[in-house]
Write a structure and sequence with these properties.
5 helices; mainly alpha; 79% helix; single chain
């Protein structure tokens, strides 16, 4: 059961990463900032990533050794939900450009090793 649960959370995380990439594809920071629909979609997917990662780590704490900064990812989710008024578009954009590609590769590698 543990492996199946972890796989589901990793799949959800990967799908959220794919959606974020699709939502911002071809856009600039200025276009992102000007589009509340895209911003809402991106932020929702980051919330899913943070929650799914939190749940995956509860089931399999050893995953934290294979993911860069898991605590910061979960904290970012919490900030999006509880401190939404203080979210800066340029911070979200920086995470998309700098952190998301690395995180997605880590999750894909975990999925390859975990999938039945």
């Amino acid at each position: 059961m543990k492996r199946h649960e972890v796989c589901k959370y990793l799949y959800d995380i990967n799908e959220a990463c794919v959606l974020i990439e699709r939502f911002v594809s071809g856009k600039t920071l200025e276009e992102y900032s000007a589009d509340p629909l895209v911003r809402s979609g991106v932020e929702r997917q980051f919330e899913i990533i943070g929650e799914a990662l939190n749940q995956a780590l509860r089931v399999a704490p050893e995953l934290s050794e294979r993911i860069t900064e898991p605590g910061r990812i979960i904290s970012f989710r919490n900030r999006l939900i509880h401190g939404y008024a203080s979210i800066a578009d340029d911070v979200v954009w920086g995470i998309i450009e700098e952190k998301l590609p690395v995180f997605r590769r880590e999750v894909e590698m975990l999925l390859e090793k975990t999938a039945p």
